[in-house]
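Box 3.1 A note on notation
Throughout this textbook, protein chains are presented in two layers. The first layer is the amino acid sequence; the second is a token string describing backbone geometry. Keep the layers aligned when reading.
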Amino acid sequence: MKRHELFAGIFLLVVAAAILQISCSPRRGRRTTEGPGEIILSGQHGLAYAPFTAARLKGWFEEEIPGATFRWKTLGNATAIREAMLANRLDGGVMGIPPFLIGRDRGMEWTAVVSVAEAELGLNTRRDSVESIADIPPDLRIALPQPGSIQHILLAMAAEREFGDAGRFDNQLVTLSHPDGMNALLAGSEVEAHFTSPPFLQDERRREGIRTILDGQEAFGGRYSFIVAVLSDDFIDRYPEAAEGFRRAIERGARWLNEQPDEAAVFLADHYGLEPEVLRSYLDSCGLVFGGEIRGMDRFRTFMHAQGYLNSDLEGHDLVLP
């Protein structure tokens, strides 16, 4: 089965599940007031989401979108966010560029609004005989958030460059959230490699016998946005001022982290379950660049279409909110 057929099948299952959920539970009604009323947003696990997290904890979303009330979710991957948005139970969230593109390719009406962060991503392993991806044997299981995640596509880019086969490792993947993937790697179970992000990447490397064999920028061939924030097109069309407020709140979080890292480390330490000095060291050592322009959209789009992860190249589509 070709990769694009596999992803199409997965997406149809997601749509069917969402339709079933909608039919069995009440939908959120269309808003009739000038403001958006209740806004439901989802984050994910990891330090790269810190601008979104900071804006939530500091109350900056409320300040930038006055009159709105917020509900917050923390979902494990972009598929969960996509399902929730399909079911009309989520207005926006944060994710990597590849799952955003896969969603658009399969008919998701959503748009990238702002870059949340760049970050060091990497593939860690505990198997002694593996020093690079060229050494990965067929029996080594690799944990990552989901097929089509940015970690998966970066691994595919590296495999295409090294072997001329982007799907070389597809049958070796195990879908686990970042915390579960780290626990599985450290437990020494069937998972012996983990493609992950800060702080899990650095936490794993501190353990004896675990090392990074592939860096994300090496796989991509340059800089890219790790996390972007997205909103449904319906929300953007109905509430353009709120969409701009959403962007401003995340940009405030990014500026605060960039300009006041000591204060940010103290404030966010409890949320991340880290001592302030440890969190502060991560902010310096994880390749984190908060905010800025969205980087890498076209390169991801071109590669993913060429390799069958996208049915359309999406050229000419308005993928990013101006």
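The two ends are 38 Å apart (CA to CA). The first strand starts at residue 38 and ends at 43.
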